[in-house]
Amino acid sequence: xxxxxICSDYPIANKNAESSLLKFQLNSIKKSFEKIIxxxxxxxxxxxxIAGLEYEIIDDLxxxxxxxxxxxxxxxKLFLKDLQEIKFNKTFFNATFRSFLVYLKSIIFITFxxxxxxxxxxxxENTAIYSFWFNDxxxxxxxxxxxxxxxxxxxxxxxxDLFAERHAGNRIPFRKVSVNLIDNVIVCSNEGKxxxxxxxxxxxxxxxxxxxxxxxxxxxxxxSDDGKFRIVTLSRTNPVKRISYLLKTLKDLESFSDFxxxxxxxxxxxELKYLIKLSKNLNFKKIKITFLGxxxxxxxxxxxxxxxxxxxxxxxxxxxxxxxLVEAMSYSIPVLVTKVGGNISIGNYCNTILSxxxxxxxxYNYMYDIHHSKxxxxxxxSDSYNxxxxxxNSDTISLKIKKEFETICFNKSI
Length: 414
Fold this sequence. Notes:
- The protein has 15 helices and 13 strands.
- The chain is of the alpha/beta class.
């Protein structure tokens, strides 16, 4: 059997969540399929592609086809039905426009995939489709089910593509019909699985939990031994990560902290310049703020090896399973997380949960105990490592991914 994988920008040589997770998944399942075909939804023109790929790549998705107009009209009832579910409030027009865009992208995709399967060598009966993200293209692929009900279609689900509150009108267009049509959704966090089960209880058997796999590290990160307290965050600099909120909270606790604090942020994005400016305007006196920007995997490993770290923070307002957070835990770094999404399981296990609107006192109390109590610090380091080992060890997860794909696509029993 062949497998078509719908992705965003893989195999472009980017360092992002899709690249890391999909590469791991491909290594886990590549021997299970005769051929794997990558279908990125962004253009690969003039982009640097990962060297040594052994997979076929399709890069003509954006080519206009006359049959797109026919499919647009043919499936219009689905669009009209989706519009009926939108509540008339202040987000109505944004939600309506979003629904139209999703419908248009889905029609472009279904037109492309139908044309692809018209080729003699690409028999649809011998192909399954996996969408890395549960998004617009997933719905486009699912429209195939109307014509080919036996084709196997599955999707991953993470954060933005999972939680409705992160979208206009607190809804994801065509989500009900997508859940109805899809064979299985592979969710990367227990909270995400529970969310889908609550929203769509009739289809709870379709939702499978497969944690992200993180490799075993050659060393464990050391704690500070010079009286300073070092904090790290690692993420894109966009609003949902709330780095600005953290900076303002650190400014508040600066006035009563009895130890010196150094804070490092790793990662770039839309807000980076704003955050650098904000940190300067806050005029820190006792806390040193350092923005390292986007760095390579080797640079990150070198940083972890050379720099003592006392706590890794994730203060997001919404989260799936944060790969950088689990990566830190595999290095045996204590973690503090807000009570959202995939953070909850981690925070409950380590007993280090912050409320989403945490204040400087709540944050400082954890930091104080880590800094002043070696016993507590060592317990958190052990908790982090054990959580990774139990839930995200790449050796174990790789086998589970392989079994899930074979179960879904080949109807094998686990």
